[in-house]
Amino acid sequence: MPKLCKLEPVSGGGEFDAPQAIDLPDGRPLILGRSPLTGIVDKKLSRNHLEATADYMSETVHLKQLGPNPAWCQGNELQKESGVKLANGEKLQLLVGKYEYAIRFSSNQPSAGNDRGSVKKSNDLTVQKSESPVTKVAKDSHSSKKRTLDDDRDDDEDDDNDDSKAERKANSRAGNFQPAQKKSKTEREDDENGNPVDEIDQKLAALQRKAKEATEKQARKEGSASRHHREHREAGESGSGDGSASAKAAPAAGSGKPSTVEEWKEEGKLLVFKSVGVKAGSKIVGFDMDGTLITTASGKVFPQNADDWRIIYPEVPGRLKKLHSEGYKIVIFTNQLGISRGKMTVKEFKRKLGNVQRKMGVPLQAFAATSGGMYRKPAMGMWNYLKSKGNDGITIDMKASMYVGDAAGRPADWAPKKKKDFSCSDRLFALNIGLPFKTPEEFFMGQKPAKFNMPAFDPRTVSTSTPLLSPPNTVLPAAVQEVILLVGFPASGKSTFVKNHLLKHKYFHVNRDTMGTWQKCVSACTSALNKGQSVVVDNTNADPESRKRYVECAQKAKVQCRCFTFSTSFDQARHNEKFRQLTPSGKNHAPINDMVFHSFKKNFVPPKKEEGFSEVIQVNFVPAFANSDEERLYKTFLLEK
Question: How far apart are CA 550 and CA 508, in angstroms?
Fold first, then answer.
C-alpha cells in the first residue's frame, strides 16, 4: 500500500504561489480552494471549492465539485455536486485553464485488469459497406479464440484531452486572460458567478494583440507567410478523397519496388517513416497506432515512456502479415501531439515506432502528426501527403482500401464497462478521405459494429445559397441614422458581415479587438453618433447587460437600434475557427481556444425587442470561399470531437 498521496503543482498550470505539494490523507476528505493551503487568492475560486478524498488501496482520488466555477478533469468541466475519480499521474485544474495539480502516490502497485465482457449488440447507425477484400481478410483469418476488449486508451487521448488545457495554460502564461492592472469594481469579476460576458470580448482583443506580436516575431525569424504556404502545399489540402489530387499523371494501380533501407523524414510538423521492404501500392490498409495496434505494457492509461507498449491483441501480427502477403500496403497514421509538448522526443518516438514495426514483422509506412494543424486527424494532411509524395505516384484504389482506428465516437458502455471513446477523429478521418472504416475490435476480433455518435455539426450540409437575413426583406442599410448591434459567437461571421455589407455604407465600426475596452467602445459609439454617423458594434454582446450600453447610446442620440443576431452554433463556430487557422486568412487572426467559445455559450441570452431594439434580425452563415479548394476543405470534418 502506498505510504503517501500528494497533489503536486504542475509548472505552468496557472500563475499562483503554491507553498508546497498538498498531502491527501487516506479516506478522509480534504477541502481545496482559496486558502493558505493552496496559496491561491483568486476570488473566482471559492474557499470550499473542491473536495478530494484519496483511496490508498486503489491509488485513486475522488474529487467532488463544491464551488460554482467548474474545475477541469479528464477533459471535462465539473459541474456543482458532480464527482470524478482520478488515478495516479492524472491531472486536474482547480479552475478551467488554471491552477493545475497532478495526483502522485508514493509507490505504484500493478493495476488489476478490467472486467471482461462481451460487446453489446446494436442496430444503431453504422458504416454499411459491402464485403471488400480487406473485410474478407479479417473474416478468413479470424480464429475461434475470442479476446475480451481492452479498456486502455492511447497517447492520442492524452493529446486530445490536453488540447484545450495547453492552450489555456499558454494563454495564462502570456497574460491573455489576466488584467494588466487592477480594475475598478465595475470592470472586473470579483464574485463566484462566472465571467461577465463583456470579458469575452476583452479576451478576444487580448488574443488579437498577442497574435500581432507573435506574427511580427515570427516574421523576423523566418517569414511566417512563406512557411504557411509551404506547409499548405506539402499537405495538399485541396486534394479530394478519391485519389485524384496528385498533379502528376500516375498509374491506375500496381505496386512499386521494395525499399532497401529504413528511412525517416521530418517535414515540418510531420514525421514520415518507411521500413525496409515497404513498397508503394494501390491497395492501402491504414491504421491508427496507440489503442489500435498497441497499448501500454504497464496497464496505465497513458504510456510512461517510449518502451511502455505491447501489441494490443495477439491476432494483430498475423492479420498484418496476411494483408502484406495479399499485396496490401500497411500505413500508420497517428496523432502525436505529445512530441511538440515535450512528453516524448522525436528520437524516442523514432525508436518506439521502429521497435513496433519489427515486433509486427511486416514492412510498413507511417505518418506522425507532431502538432496541431493540417496534418492532425481528422484533417486530411497525412493522407494527402501519402497520395502526393508518399506512394511513388501510384493511384490508390479507394474501393479496395480501408482505415482502422479506435477513436470512433462510441459512447460510454458501448460494450460492458467500457469508457466512451476520447474522440471521433479516426472515424471522421476515414469519412473525410472516403475510406471504409472499422474499429480494431471489428477488424481484428471480428466483433459486430458498436453504436457511435457523430458530431452535432456536419460541415457537408452547409449551403452557399441560404438567404443571408431573416426576415429576407430586412432593409440594409437603413435609410436613417442608427446603431446596429451584432450578437454571436467568435468566428460566427460578424466581422465579415461588417466588411461586406456595412463599411461601404459609411457605418462607423466599433470593435473591441482594436479599441481594447468596452468603455472605449461606448465612447467611440457616442462620438460617432454625435457626428451624425451610423454605428455598427462588432462585439460578441452575449447578454442584456453588455447590450444595454449601446442601446442607451442610441436612445440618448434619439436614433434607432437594431440587433443582428448570428445563427452560427457553438460547434460550427469552432469549425469556422479551425478552418480559418488552416487557410491563409488565419495568418492575421489569433487562435481562439475553446474556453472563449464555452464562455460565450455559458453567458448567452437571446436578444429580445424588449431590450430596446426596433428589430431583432437573424443573420445566417452563408460562406463565401476564395476558391474550390477552400470549399472542399471547409466541407470536411475538422474537429476531433
Answer: 13
In the block, cell 494543424 appears at 373
Least confident range of 192-196, 262-266, 559-563: 192-196
> Per-residue pLDDT tens for 510-552?
999 889 899 999 999 999 999 999 999 999 999 999 999 999 9
H helices of 266-378, in order, are 315-325, 346-360
Element (H, E) at 594: helix 594-603
Q: Is the pLDDT of residue 9 over 80?
A: yes
The rounded distance, in Å, linking the Cα atoms of 402 and 381 is 17
∠ CA 137-141-144, nearest 5°, is: 140
**In the structure grid, which three cell numbers stand for residue 582, read together?**
488552416
DSSP 8-state code for residue 157: H
How many residues belong to the chain?
641
Enter the DSSP assignment of 3.
S
> What is the grid cell recorded at 381?
494532411
- What is the spatial distance between Cα 208 and Cα 490, in angstroms, rounded to a whole number? 12
Q: Confirm if 315 and 446 have CB atoms less than 8 A apart.
A: no
The pLDDT, as a whole number, for residue 195 is 44
> Which residue is listed with cell 494532411?
381
CA separation for the pair 93, 49 (Å, rounded): 12
Q: 367 to each of 332, 380, 426, how far by Cα in Å?
A: 6, 12, 14
- Measure the CA–CA gap between 29 and 574, rounded to whole angstroms: 38
* Sequence letter at residue 527: S
CA distances, 589 to each of 107, 459, 585 (Å): 46, 22, 8
Chain position carrying cell 493558505: 36
- Position 588 confidence tier, pLDDT thresholds 50, 70, 90: confident
Widest Cα–Cα separation across the chain: 83
Three-state DSSP at 384 gives: helix
Residue 230 has pLDDT above 90, yes or no: no
Alpha carbon distance 590, 208 (integer Å) = 5
Query: Residue 72: CB partners within 8 Å, gap ≥ 6?
Result: 78, 92, 93, 95, 96, 97, 165
pLDDT per position as a tens digit, 277-304: 999 999 999 999 999 999 999 988 888 8
- Helix (H, G, I), strand (E, B), or coil: what is residue 25? coil
